[in-house]
Write a structure and sequence with these properties.
heterodimer, A: alpha/beta, Rossmann fold, six-stranded mixed sheet, 10 strands, B: 291 residues, mainly alpha, ABC transporter involved in vitamin B12 uptake, BtuC, two-stranded antiparallel sheet, 2 strands
Chain lengths: 271, 291
């Protein structure tokens, strides 16, 4: 075992043309940990994930997984290294059946530079992948029921499960989830949250929860980072952040003057 | 009535070949967002290679070789059109395919000259079906194209590699995030589409001679077939191809009966068919809105 953290991001800068979306962010995450990244819309949360997962080449900074430098590598390499992203808005493959969605998660992991050898590697590992699929079905029995239905014709919560299941098929050690709660009913979000906590505690999969819903994220994770306008502004244990005045007024819906939290601005279970 | 049926048989056959071109366009457009105008050139190459090979080797081997060589050329075109970096936009790619189409046309002119090419069909006589004379070659074209379209559809639905293609079409971003190299998939889509286009003209050339510049007509017809399904549906592109083929034959067959048109009718073949296509596309779009 190396002493390096599972994920280490060091001074990451992401630019779209001239616009700086992420301006030198550093954070780290240990194996098996649950960490939240919160911040308002446009703070650079998704840009950070894009930079880490290889969708965008970072302009500067480093991304290390298990001490291995993976900065600017292709998304497939990041997946093989053990980090899979569950993208914002689920992004299931709508016309494909749920089971094909899941299997593509395993296929993508075998995909390097071209289709033929990827397919041969996939077929070579078919046995292991079938076991893996069974495991995902036993974790999420609902998906077994829906296996033949096109993923686009399932509910939002079910699609989120498909997206998570697809990511799990790649056998990640770290799951980065972009906006788990977006557009989902509070009860569905609660179910998914419980599932993820179980996954983390029983299977040891580390979680990076990227959320606008700070209440939910702080409740689920022991530690959190706060991102604003492309920079980290706060970091620390969730209970400390929950007591922090800035966080309270900005993200927890409890203004200093207004004693009552505004209902309806936050989805998810708020006590 | 006999004449009508005769025209329909020919139309279904040429239409099938257009359908394959259109299906290829749909496949490429769905997986990459590129409208591939080199698709007609692939068809012409298929026909010309077949003509060049068929004298020396068995027809089946020649056909297979022509399809595979064009598929390989298609993968190279795909590689260039999709670009080495992420920056190449679909519009830039479209222009690249247009440039490649022109290049292939010029090379074909140099290599094969300015005259129509054909090769003799293996069937020695036409079938007489209820008084309608049917060239077996037409049946062969229609049958093989239908089989190819069915196999493609099955492959896309049932195999993991096919599903990877569909995944790229469904959500390129998500496909990338599960680790699929979207550009590698695009190259495969180009290869398959090129092979399909070539297959159509490998078979059609005995009854519809191919010239170095046939690619424009083929690309336009293929695009019209694809547009029938909104560039999104393989099944509708197939139907579109058939409709287009039959419409053209009917125009050719009956236009010279209209006074004043006479022998010039052939010139209006493409134009008339495209007008019919536009009307049908408009009608389809209208129905979709009303649904």
């Amino acid at each position: 075992m190396s002493a390096a953290p599972l994920l280490e991001i060091d001074g990451l800068v992401v630019k779209y043309g001239q616009a700086i979306a992420l301006d030198g962010v550093s954070l780290s995450l240990e194996a098996g940990e649950r960490v939240a990244l919160i911040g308002p819309n446009g703070a650079g949360k998704t840009s950070l994930l894009n930079g880490v997962c290889g969708l965008v080449k970072p302009a500067a900074g480093r991304v290390l997984l298990d001490g291995r430098d993976l900065t600017g590598r292709a998304p497939g390499e990041i997946v093989r290294a053990g980090l899979t992203q569950v993208p914002e808005g689920r992004q299931v493959f709508p016309t494909l059946p749920v089971e094909a969605n899941l299997l593509l998660g395993a296929y993508g992991r075998e995909f390097r530079h071209e289709l033929v050898s990827a397919t041969l590697r996939y077929i070579g590992r078919r046995g292991e992948i079938a076991v893996r699929l069974e495991r995902v079905y036993s974790l999420m029995p609902k998906l077994r029921e829906l296996r033949e239905r096109p993923a686009g014709r399932t509910s939002g919560g079910e699609q989120q499960m498909v997206a998570i299941g697809r990511a799990l098929m790649a056998e990640p050690r770290l799951l980065a989830i972009d906006e788990l709660s977006l557009g989902l009913a509070p009860l569905v979000v609660q179910d998914l949250s419980e599932f993820l906590v179980g996954l983390n505690e029983e299977e040891g999969v580390a979680l990076l929860l990227v959320e606008q819903n700070a209440v939910l994220a702080l409740e689920l994770c022991a530690r959190a980072y706060v991102l604003e306008a492309g920079r980290l502004v706060l970091a620390g244990p969730s209970d400390e952040l929950e007591r922090n005045e800035t966080v309270r007024s900005a993200y927890l819906g409890g203004g200093l003057e207004v004693a009552d939290a505004e209902p309806g601005t936050q989805a998810g279970p708020s006590s | 009535m006999k004449e009508f049926l005769q025209l329909v048989v020919v139309g279904v056959s040429t239409g099938s070949a257009y359908a394959l071109v259109g299906i290829g366009m749909v496949l490429i457009f769905r997986t990459t967002g590129i409208v591939n105008f080199a698709q007609g050139s692939f068809a012409v190459l298929g026909g010309l290679f077949m003509v060049a090979l068929v004298d020396d080797i068995h027809g089946l081997v020649a056909g297979l070789a022509a399809v595979l060589v064009v598929a390989f050329i298609g993968s190279l075109v795909g590689f260039v059109a999709v670009g080495f970096r992420h920056r190449t936009t679909p519009l830039a790619s479209l222009i690249i395919t247009l440039g490649i189409a022109l290049l292939i046309t010029s090379l074909n002119l140099l290599a094969f000259g300015d005259r129509p090419h054909t090769y003799p069909t293996i069937f020695d006589r036409a079938w007489d079906i209820g008084g309608v004379l049917v060239q077996p070659q037409y049946v062969l074209v229609a049958g093989v194209t239908l089989l190819a379209a069915l196999l493609l559809t099955l492959g896309l639905q049932r195999t993991i590699a096919g599903q990877a293609l569909v995944a790229c079409a469904d959500s390129r971003r998500a496909a990338e995030l599960v680790g699929i190299d979207v550009r590698a998939v695009a190259v495969v889509a180009f290869a398959v589409s090129a092979g399909l286009s070539a297959l159509g003209w490998v078979l059609l050339t005995p009854v519809d001679p191919v010239n170095y510049d046939s690619d424009v007509r083929i690309a336009i017809n293929g695009f019209a077939a694809a547009a029938f399904g909104g560039l999104a549906s393989i099944r509708l592109a197939y139907v579109g191809g058939l409709v287009l083929g039959v419409a053209q034959q009917l125009v050719v067959g009956y236009a010279d009966k209209i006074p004043g048109l006479g022998q010039q009718a052939r010139q209006y073949e493409l134009a008339a068919a495209l007008v019919i296509m536009l009307v049908l596309i408009g009608w389809r779009a209208r129905n979709e809105v009303h649904e």
